[in-house]
Amino acid sequence: MKWKLTYRLIVLALAIAFLYWGLMGLVLFVKSLMFPLLDTFIYERILIGALIGGVCQIRYNLFEKKWFSLIRRLSQGTLFGAGVGLVVGSVVQGLSFVTLSLSSHDLLTLSWLLMGAGLGLSLNKPFSLKKHWRFAVQGALGASVSPVLFSFFKVDDAYSVLNSILPLFLLFISLHLPSVLSNRSYLRVLNGADSWQSFPLEKESTSLGYIQNNDIPLKSYAEIFPIHAYVMKTQNQKYQIVNARQDAQLFINFRPIQEGFLNSGDIIKIGSAMLQYWEEP
Question: Exposure string (b/e) for 251-262, b if CB count within 10 Å is 16 or more?
């Protein structure tokens, strides 16, 4: 399961990188016709943020074929990521006018650092610097690798294929690969329309419920509330399932509970849905 997720992650990262390279020409054309006042550098940051933000939001749902949920999450992530790109691009562009001591390479490296940190921090919900600072560090480190390599090997063409593809690839990988490789816990659906579908528990808090914007949507099952329960990671790296409502029925191994710690192999019953918690050895 872990290596399957890693393979999918690498394919997605490459797809984003090549898509950015292909779309950049179109963006520059649109800029010349409609928005000539914004600098090309800002458009690049907006496009990078939009692509990474959109795919980050749909990565968990990309292979479920639930199109309404995909479109909604894609729209939210794209707009949020584009906003991060606009802010970073504007800040760095402003610094280039007021700080003459910074070279163009320094400004480019700074922009990638800020993009990585901003996307890593802002695309995890709920927004919390205390809980998600490591994603900001991962994003900043991953995004800064390529400018350092390009400086060392003296790659100067800003619009070369390598210069367009490698930074995005490393940024996306750095945001997700550590959690994929370190993750050992999953929830697997045992019955109904989503039977045998597995959901990795990569977040600090994973929601389960009827509506589509849950981390694990259980729309095709009966007796389930819009947000029915949360699976939360504790400080000692154990997982605990907690009822979201007093009147919501939640069972572990067919015993009714309000909250309880999970052990590998436990059967969870939420409404008519049956799930199993398991850990890789």
Answer: ebeeeeeeebeb
